[in-house]
Amino acid sequence: MLAGGVAALYWTGWDSTVADDGLPFLSKAWESLAGAESEFANDRMNNCANRCYYACFQAAIHALLRAGAQPRGGRTQWPHAFVQAEFVRALVRGRKLYSSDLRDTLVRTYILRQIADYEQDHVTELQAARGLRRTRTFLEEVRREGGAA
């Protein structure tokens, strides 16, 4: 499915060997989306949900770095709660760099990942498809606004 399927659309022109101006997170985000597409195509909805969240998380880190943000306290790792809140506070509501339609994408994909990874329930095909749609929209907007990966 990948060779001619939906995921191939998102890999066109992407070169995994080139870091985006020293900020590799957008490239990682597209790789995570490709993984989500593959998992969906192979009926692995829980894995799809996991990769959707990480694609959005990595893209949000890229956007925050582009805006000059850093993890608090001199940390090198990005806490999930910080990324989710700061993306919305600084880039959606504050600077209005991104559409308000994106304000709940990180939280929604995070909740779906929590179900996939930690709950007894399985992610359904419909939930995974919605997660993929949100993830594609999120990554496309981050790419338009501040990166070419």
How would you briefly describe this protein structure?
The chain has 149 residues and is mainly alpha-helical. It has a single domain (6-146), classed as Four Helix Bundle (Hemerythrin (Met), subunit A). The chain has six helices and no strands.
Describe the structure.
The protein has 149 residues and is mostly helical. It has one domain (6-146): Nucleotidyltransferases  domain 2 (Four Helix Bundle (Hemerythrin (Met), subunit A)), CATH 1.20.120.330. The chain is 64% helix and 0% strand. It has helices at 6-11, 25-41, 45-66, 80-94, 105-118, 125-146. The model is unreliable at 1-20 (pLDDT under 50).
**Helix tally?**
6
Instruction: Tell me the name of the CATH class.
Output: Mainly Alpha
Following the backbone from N to C, one meets helices and strands in this order, namely HHHHHH
Please tell me the total number of domains.
1
- Rounded mean pLDDT score: 86
CATH topology: Four Helix Bundle (Hemerythrin (Met), subunit A)
Multimerization status: single chain
SSE class: mainly alpha
Largest sheet: none
Assigned CATH architecture: Up-down Bundle
Number of E-type strands:
0
Shape estimate = globular
Terminal Cα separation, in Å? 23 Å
Tell me the β content: under 5%
